[in-house]
Structure formats: C-alpha cells, structure tokens
Amino acid sequence: MKAFKITTAAAAFALMANASFAATEISWWHAMGGALGDTVNQLAEDFNASQSDYKITPVFKGTYEEALTAGIAAFRAGEQPNVLQVFDAGAATVIGAKGATVPVQDLLVDNGADFDINDYISGVRYFYADSDGKMIGMPFNSSSPIMYYNVQALEKAGVTAPKTWEEFQTVTAPALKDAGYTALSQSHLPWIFTENFMSRHDLPFATNDNGYEGAEGTKILVNNDAIKNHFTAVTDWQKNGYFEWFGTGWGDNQTPFEEGKVAIWLGSSGSFGGLAKKGLPFDFSATYLPYWEAVTTEPKQTFIGGASLFAMAGKSPEENKATAAFFEFLTKPETQYFWHQETGYVPITEAAYEMAKADGHYDRAPAAETGILQLSLPAGENTKGYRMGFYVQIRDVMNREYGRILTGETSVEDAFANIEEEANGLLARFAKTQN
Amino acid sequence: MKRAGFTTRWLPILLLLPQLLIIAVFFYWPAVHAVQSSFFLQDPFGFGSSFVGLDNYRDLAGSGEYIKIARFTLLFTVLVTFFSLGLALLLAVKADNVIRGARSYRTLLMWVYAVAPPVAGFIGLLMFNQSWGPLTEMARAIGWDFKLGVNFNDTATAMVIVSVWKQVPVNFIFFLSGLQSIPKSVREAALIDNRSAVGRFWDVTFPLLAPTGFFLLIINITYALFDTFGIIDTLVKGEPGNNPMTLVYKVYVDGFRGNDLGGSSAQSVVLMVLVLALTVFQFRLIERRIHYT
Fold first, then answer.
1. Which of A162, A179, B30, B182 could form a disulfide with A168 if both were Cys (CB 3.0 to 4.6 A apart)?
2. Carries keyword Nucleus (chain B) (predicted)?
3. How are beta strands A83-87 and A305-312 bridged, if at all?
C-alpha cells in the first residue's frame, strides 16, 4: 500500500513536471532536399538537443517555388509555419507583404538577443533588408555563383583560370579547345549571366535603387549594351565550340563538367560540398566569376543567392520567442561553420568565417573560401541586391529568351527588347497588387 | 412505353442532393472564385488587391507568348489525339484477329495503362537523356541531333511521343471491347459482300465502332489538354525556359510558380470557356452523325 502511494505521487509529480516544462513547439518549412535536407534535419536536432524549452520540426516542402507557394497558401488559411524558407527570387513577394512576417531584426531585439547587422558579412547583410537597412529575413543558405574548373584540363591546355572574359576568349578557351575540351558551361543564365553580371560590373539592375524603394514605378534596366555584348560574345563562343548550353535545367549543365567533357563550369558556391563528396576523377578548384575589362576595371562583389528564413506573423509571443532562440542558434559561429563545411554555403557572419579560417578549413580546401571571398570583395552602388516583384516569372521570361538566343531562334537585340517589355509589364502588374 | 415516375416531388431532389452538393462545392464554387479573382490583381498573401476590370484578359490577348502557347496547345492536342486513337485502333484490329495467345498479347498491350503521367514523363526523361538515352542515340543514328530540353521541336516531339505512348493502352482497351461487341453475324454477312479486308473495315467495322470512337475522341482531347500536365512538368523539369508548354501548364506556371493569382485566374476562365465550347461543338455537330445500335 505504501509502495503504491509513492508510485502515484511520483507519477503525479512527473506529470506536473511535464506540464510545467513542456517545450514550445515550432515548425520550419524548407526546400532543402537530398543531402542538404539531411543537414537541415541535423541542425534541427542539434537545436532541440541544445536546450529543453523549445522544439523545432523541419518539414521539406519541395522546390523553392513550391515551398513559397505552400507557405502563402498556409498563411491565407491561418495555418502558416513559424519559419518559412524563401529564396532570392521570392524576396520581393514576401517582403512586400507587410504583415506576413515579423522582421527578424525586430524579432531578435524584442526577445533580448544581441543584434548588430555589421556582424554579418557585407555581401549578405542587405539582400533581405528593407530600404532603411532593417533586416527582414535571416540569411540562411547563402551562396554566390563562382567559377569551378578542372585542374588537370587547364594544366593539359597550359592555361590558368581566366580572370577576365577577354582572357577567356583569347587565351583560355582556344587552348582548352585544342586540348579536346569544351571550355565552358553554366547552370543558371538569369542568376549568373544577368543578376550577378550586374553586380560584378556594378551596373544598376532596376530603377528605384534596384527596386528597394518600392514596387511603384520600378523598371528593369536589363536592356543595356554591356550585357547585350556579353550575350553576343556567348553566342560567338558557342559557334566556336568554346561554350555549350545544355538547356534550362541546372543538372544538365553540371553533368558534362563532372564527366570531364567541359573544363570550366559556372555554378553555385553551394555546389562545393556536393562536388567534393562525388569523388570526381579529376581535381577541381574554384575562383571568382570573370568580368569584362572593357566594362569595368574595378570588378565588385556579387549578390548572394540561395534563400533566407522568415518568421511568419500571427504567432503567439512564446512561439516567437522560440523562433528567436532558433535564429540565435543558427547564427552562432559553431552552427554556421558546421553548415558551411557540410554544404559549401557561405558562413553568414564574420565570426563564423574567422572560426573556419582559424580551424584551417581553407588550408585543407582552398576553393571552399571562394564564395565568401567573392562576397567580401569591394561593394559598389548597385551590389547590395535587387528587389523586384513577380521575379520568378521575370526569370522564366529570361530563361525563355536566352534559350531562344542559344538555339538561334531569336537575336540578342530582340531577346533583350522582349525581356525588358515583359518584365516591365510584370513589374507594373506587381505594383498594383501592393495597394 | 410506360413511364416510371416519382409520386412526390421532394424525393428525387433529395436523392440528387449529394451529387448536386459535390458539384457545387468542388466545381461551381471554385469556378465562381476564379472568375471573380480574374478581375483583380492581388497580393499573394492576401493583403492588397486592386480591381483591374478586364485588364488581365487584355494582357492575355495582347501577349504574343500566350498566343504562341495556345497555338502549340492546339497542335499538340491534334497530334496526341490523332496518334493515340490511330495507333490504338490499328493495334486493336490486329489483336482482335489473333487467336493463339490472345490473352497475353492483350495484357502486354494494356500494361502501360497503369503508369501515372509523371512516371511516364520520368521514363521519357530516361529514354531521351541528353548523353545516354537510347532514343536519343537512335535519333543520332539517323542523323538527328536530338536535344531534349534544349531544342524546342525536339522537346515537343518527346512530349507527343510520351503522351501518345501513355494513352494508347486506354484507347486500345475500349477499341478492343468495341470490336468484340460487333455481332459475328454482321461480320459474316460482310465477308460475303466484300472480299477486301480493308474495304470491310471502312464500310462495316468502322461505322459500328463510331460510338466508341466518339467517346474516345472526347476523352483523348481532354487528356491532351489537361492530363498531360504531369508529363510536361517532368519533361521540362519544372523549368519551362524555352521549351514548349500547354495552356494548362501555363496556368500552373503563372499561378503556382509565379504567384500571379489574377493573371492565372483569367487564364483558367479562358480554358473553361474553351472546354465548354468544345463540348457543345462535339455534341451538337459530331454526335448527330453517329449511329448507336
């Protein structure tokens, strides 16, 4: 009888303990599949293990576009997750909808976290910020387009990685062709040859301060001679057998590089982890995206690509506190370094970068530093980012017209006139959705 | 003939109610919503919106791209319907004549029926793989530098081939059962009148198959317009680029990728009207000429 009493008491106590220490549960919708998804799950587990007050559950929602659409639909139904991952092209949509999210800067400050935007590396800082420089989305998987090359192929051809496009077309590409390689392929024409073409050469991409000042009256500035000359050069390279385009799909353009047919591939700094794990039959390295000396002699940093995390609005203060704690955990140098090492995405804070350096990560894999170095190059007037609505569709228009240029269906001149017209139409339509 | 009827008025209504309710909730209500949002430009999150009248429709009419996509959809539908029906009919007539091992032939021909469109698209991706796809290599062997995802016409060809391949078994099943329901006596009588097998087919078998054919025609047009979505999505890997697409895929691209709700709604309304017109046309003009036994 006595024993029974004790057990009941213990049970009751355990029950009470459970009630008072119940963890606040929050959800995180993301678009990281495959190996990246495993790393995301690891981050969540580490966070849950690091404390007992909060519990985060990551949910894979498909591609970037699908994750954003799912988040929007859920928000309209009042079922939004606490944290939503939104990619670069969706930034204008989610930041434009004031009231859909709680700015991370406010979230962190209100919950007593230290926040200083200058802790973040310069290329990352303002991409997901508003026009006043307040951070709205927390940069998460940040990458930049860089140039990967097959070390043996370049050695065989007797050349080094080109610094400028002039060097590429007069020295590198002909030598690689003679050595039996297609010199170049790339995986994302709007991202690499358009958006980052603008930042690398410090050209304005849109009016209204690249669109940061608001959707009203923003016009795209893509129809300029610098980029048209670039695409004319690309078609010449294609004719000379220096460049091959394998379609709009990312992987179709990466595979020939992995197979050793293409010597230089322009991809994401976030591709580094995956390439390193593949055990390619050759050594690869990476360096900065080339630039045109004819356009600028002072090349600048590139935009970040990838995605950021947004704290969705309409959640209780306890849950927001949990979200803030999770964001704090994510920006810790140890977490960032782990993420950087596993995936190749850049560490987003200076502290994490210093930690990676001190640990000798870049002595072991010098190419892993390329992305962050490129993002830390001098900034220009037009390099903090761009903010355009319906940008997913604008990218679709670019992809369509670029594909037509490269299959000979249209001229560079007509393609850019079309892109300008259709993009401005979409921007004007987007401005009307913002009333 | 004696007409059977209900004695009370409310009973038939009550019996119909569940069906009417389902139609209302799942068809009419969303349709009304689509029409309504086609007059607005709306912030995806639902904060802001402007009434723009017919602007969304005007944008569509003025878009050269949209007209191009509509034209491709028409061509695609005609090709897919024609080849799916033609091949299935040929196979069904041949299979109907086979006596030895008939069952296994038929089962083999029906096999693909169970494949879901995205899976069919995925198989297409493998067959037409840029570097090692067997069909790509076959095309190269005859001097056709086939490039899926790069060349517009090549991608369109792959879409038609995969869509036809997926649909032939469905048509085959219907055609075969149609053939088998033609009375033996009619065939035997025809055999006496006409010695040419081809002649007998066009004069006797084909007209008797017309009800099945008409039904399949509607099913196939709907299939080519709507159900090929999964195949197209898989073949372009979710990134249309310069590849061909159909009107339905465009609705998805603008609405679900691009979050342009107004524009996408206007496109669905256009499609609704199109399908309505098509159905009326089919029943008014074609069905009249069909003889049901």
1. A162
2. no
3. antiparallel
Q: CA distances (Å), A318 to each of A312, A314, A324, A428, B134, in order?
A: 14, 12, 10, 40, 58
Is the CB of residue B47 less than 8 Å away from at least one CB of chain A?
yes
**Contact status of B57 with chain A (Cβ, < 8 Å):** no
**Residue among A118, A128, A61 at smallest CA distance from A91:** A128
Task: Point out the residues of chain B with pLDDT beneath 70.
Answer: 1-3, 99, 291-293
For chain A, list the domains and their CATH numbers: 25-142+305-368 (3.40.190.10), 145-205+223-302+389-400 (3.40.190.10)
pLDDT digits (tens, 9 = 90+) for B258-279: 899 999 999 999 999 998 898 8
Please indicate whether, in this complex, the C-beta atoms of B151 and A399 are within 8 angstroms of each other: no
Instruction: Provide the 8-state DSSP code for B287.
Output: G
Which residue positions in chain A have pLDDT lower than 70? 1-21
Residue A69 near chain B (CB below 8 Å): yes
Cβ contact A76–B46 (<8 Å): yes
Note the pLDDT tens digit of each residue in A50-67: 999 999 999 999 999 999
DSSP string of B96-136?
HH--TTHHHHHHHHHGGGG--HHHHHHHHHHHT-TTT-HHH
Is the ipTM, as predicted for this complex, more than 0.90? no
Question: Which residue in B has a C-alpha nearest to residue A428's C-alpha?
Answer: B41
A7-43 per-residue burial string, b: 16 or more CB within 10 A, e: under 16 = eeeeeeeeeeeeeeeeebebbbbbbbeeebeebbeeb
Contact A390, B258 (CB under 8 A): yes
Question: Is B48:B42 a contact under the CB 8 Å cutoff?
Answer: yes
Residue B2 pLDDT = 56
Q: Report the gap between the CA of B174 and the closest CA in chain A (Å).
A: 38
Q: Which tokens sit at A108?
A: 């962190």
Whether B258 and chain A come into contact, CB under 8 Å, resolves to: yes
Sheet strands side by side (includes A182-186): A182-186, A262-268, A145-150, A284-287
Residue A21: its pLDDT value, please? 59
Domains of chain B plus CATH, in order, are 49-289 (1.10.3720.10)
Residue type, B56: N
